Structures are given as C-alpha cells and as structure tokens.
Amino acid sequence: MPRPLVSQSVLLSKLTPGFFRDWAVALLQNVFISYCQESPEHTRAVRLLGELLRRSGLPVELDQFYLEQNPGGPDEGGWPKWCADRAEKSACVLVIPSAGWFAAYEGTTIARGGYGVATEAALFRQYLYNEKQVNSRIRLSFVDSPSAKVVPLALQAWHQFHPLTSSPDLDRLVAWIAGVLNLKGIQSPTVSWPEPLDSFQPDLANRHIHEWPAILDLLAGRGPHRILMIKGESGFGKSELVHQTTKYATDLGIPVARLDFKASYENETGLLGQIDLELGAHLPNFTREGGIKNHLLLKDLRALRRPVLVIVDSYEKAGALVDWVCSHLLPEVEKSLGLAVLVAGTSCPDADDIRWRNVARHLPLGPISDAAHWEPWLERRYPNFRDRKIDVQTLVLATQGVPKTFAEMCRAIDGSLRSGTTS
Q1: 110 with 5: CB under 8 angstroms?
Q2: Which regions of 20-161 does DSSP assign to beta strands (E)?
Q3: Cα separation of 122 and 338, whole Å?
Q4: Per-residue pLDDT at 201
Q5: In angstroms, rounded to a whole number, what is the distance separating the alpha carbons of residues 249 and 247?
Q6: Which residues contact residue 320 at a Cβ distance below 8 angstroms, ignoring those fewer than 6 apart?
Q7: Which of 94, 98, 133, 342 has the smallest CB count inside 10 Å?
Q8: Mean pLDDT across the stretch 43-72?
Q9: Region 316-320: what's the mean pLDDT?
Q10: Is 152 left (phi over 0), alpha (psi -120 to 50) or beta?
C-alpha cells in the first residue's frame, strides 16, 4: 500500500557519526522486519516468516501485525514516522531482499510498495556508513529466490538467511535474533524430519524419475513443497503410489491419516473424526474436545514438532467437502511446518492457488510407454518372462502403457504360464 515518504535528506541530516551508538541504551528489544510490498505472494511470505518468529517467542514488529491491532494505522506522524522509528530504534532488523527494496537502498527509484521502505533503506545505509561497516543489528532474510546479483555489493558481506526453504537456516535465524536481543529459552518452530530410508524400495514401474523422488523430499522435509498433488486417469497408478507412500511413511515413523473420499463421509464431522482416529495421539487439544473443532485442529497442527502426513485420496469424489480441503487443510500447510499433504485423484485442486502455491507441487501421471521402464518391475515380479521370451514392447502396445491394464495382463500371462496353457 503506497504511503507518502518523508524526505530522505531531512532524515539523514540528523544522522551524525555515532548517532546509532547514542541510541543504544534506548533500543527497542524487538526484531523489525523491513520489506517492500512487491506482490501479494511476497507479502504473504513475509507475514509467514513473522508468524514463525512470533511462534518462537520473539517480539516481532511488522506493519501487517500493527495494522491488525490498529486498523487506522499509526496516529503520530503516520506510517513514515512509524517506519523510521522502528528502523532507527529496533535492536534487531531483518531486511527481506527484493528488487524493490534494493532499488530503494541504492536510491535508483522510489519504491511503490510498503510503508516507507525508502525511509528504512536510507537509514540502514547511513547506519552502516556511520558504524564503519560493523553491523550487529541487520541481516538479510530471503523469503523467495531473487538472483544473488541483485544484492547490492555493500550488503553482500554479512550472512544471509533462507528460513522458509531451510529448517537449519530457520534455526540459525531464531538463534541469532535471540542472541542479539539477549533472550533465553527461545525455541525454533522447526520440525525434526526423518532421514530417508535407503532400504525401502517401492514396488513401482517408472515412478522413480519424478514422483517417488518428490515423495522422498516431501517426507524428509526437504525443499519448499509440503503439498503434492498427483493427478491421473483411472488405472494410471495413483492408488499404488498412495499405498507405497503410506508404507514408507509408516516405516519412517510418520503418523498417517488417510482421507479416502470413496468412503462417502457424510459431513465435515465425519472427516474430522477420521483425523482424530488416526492422529489423535498427536493432537491433544483437538482430541480433548471431541475431535470436532477445526480451530483446535489447526492450533495443534501448528504446534507439531514432528511431522504427520494427511493423504486426501479420490479427491474428485469429495463433493461438498472440497470446501474443507481447500479452505482449511491446504492453506494450513504454509503455517504448520510439521504438516505434509498428498492429494490424489482424477482431478486435484489448482496448484497455483495463491493460498498454497508456494508450498504445492503438481505431478500429472501418464501412461508408461517405454518398455525399458517396465523391465526392472517385470524382473522383480515375473522373472520367468525373460526365460519365456515374452516381448515387453508388445505388452506395452497392447495395454497402451496404462499401468493397471499392463499389470493385469502380466498376471494373466503368468497364470497361463504356470498352468501350462501358454507356449
């Protein structure tokens, strides 16, 4: 939201060498988040970071939080003074890198988004100059992936955090802020994800290229995607992927709740009851109140320090409960760091929906038309085919590479071979 900016020359006129040292005794013991409102997605990511830091017990100053508590905005001096005060007086500052923020820092343009980002950037620039590049207050914290080339040279010297894509980095960021503010007992909101199991070999054909690696990353907490949407026609292998994923998660020790809409849940209460049945031991507030209150479910999901997996199967049959999936479950993934969701169906939610597109990945399933991709599976399942010189390419052509049809034909051929009815 654009706001009038105070003159940078007026602001800088009072910043003499040692100005910030003179303020040291009066620094506010909080962390101020400085950013430019580049886009709705960028602004949402900034808020998510602020919420994660708050959840750790850190005092956070963010314009979005302030506006919620004060719908009319600041009274004294408006947004320019509010921004300048936080930039000057906060003991700890996180700058969220973006092209607009860096442009304001370098004075090449006046930023169109944010509440006084040009004011903040000018103050930080002068601070670094006055303190002779000894910087104990300010760090860059990325919430998306701008090119490293856009980071001004003067800001490249200090450590940069990527807390939304790296749990260890979130841990380090929380620890750094707590150290600057001299706060004790601060705990990072990160989740302890298990290491992948090399010993687990899924019984799948040609789903090891894209689909299974994505599932491995999902259940190891690697990367930004904690929603996988697997879309494919009937017979293309969705059920087998869901089955293998459930087995693998169980072997990892990750609790699983499978919401299979073939079960025809009568209403939202039935759906919540299934979650309570499968995950109740990990959702104390939700379970204590009967497993029927959405707000308690969300509260417990956000408090998780170990991962859980929710599988939404046969999404196309969800009917009216699509609203619960899209209004409650999927938007919650961004805020609940221990929640992973796998959606499977002949149709899926829009992976580009703004409420979850930063954490969602779409995996379309198609036929497996390359005979070479079937051969390892056949070797495991039907080693006698090779001795009997069964032509794999002929099977692929006969079944059009549809996994269910291919598997059924192989079972039929194997049965015939064993009974001696096929030469």
Answers
A1: yes
A2: 28-34, 60-61, 90-95, 138-141, 160-161
A3: 39
A4: 87
A5: 6
A6: none
A7: 133
A8: 93
A9: 94
A10: beta
- Do 281 and 256 form a contact (C-beta atoms < 8 A)? no
Using the 8-state DSSP alphabet, how is residue 327 labeled?
Answer: I
Closest among 130, 101, 97 to 118, alpha carbons compared: 101
The reported pLDDT for the residue numbered 109 is 67
CA neighbor of 120 nearest in space, from 34, 27, 59, 36: 34
CB of 336 closer than 8 Å to CB of 330: no
Q: How far apart are CA 276 and CA 285, in angstroms?
A: 11
Domain 211-364 has CATH 3.40.50.300: yes
Assessment of whether the complete model's pTM goes beyond 0.70: yes
Domain boundaries, the chain: 8-180, 211-364, 371-419
Report the alpha-carbon distance of residue 358 to residue 351 in Å, rounded.
9
Closest CA to 123 of 44, 2, 32: 32
Helix axes 403-419, 371-381, angle to 10 degrees: 40
- Assess whether the region 8-180 and the region 211-364 belong to the same CATH fold: yes
Q: Is the pLDDT of residue 380 over 80?
A: yes
Residues 6 or more apart from 24 whose CB is under 8 A from it? none
pLDDT tens for each residue of 103-126:
888 887 655 555 588 889 888 888
Q: HEC profile for 133-202?
A: CCCCCEEEECCCCCCHHHCCHHHCCCCEECCCCCHHHHHHHHHHHHHHCCCCCCCCCCCCCCCCCCCCCC
At residue 149 the predicted structure's pLDDT band, cuts being 50, 70 and 90, is low
Any idea of the CA torsion for 281, 282, 287, 293, to the nearest 10 degrees?
-150
Cα distance between residue 312 and residue 260, in whole Å: 6
Q: Measure the CA–CA gap between 84 and 35, rounded to whole angstroms.
A: 13
* 258 contacts 311 by C-beta, under 8 angstroms: yes
More reliable by pLDDT, 55 or 148: 55
CA atoms within 13 A on the CB side of 158: 18
User: What are the residues whose beta carbons fall under 8 Å from the beta carbon of 303, sequence distance 6 or more?
Assistant: none
Domain 8-180 is in which class?
alpha beta
- Facing residues of 61 across strands? 32
Query: Amino acid identity, residue 304?
Result: L
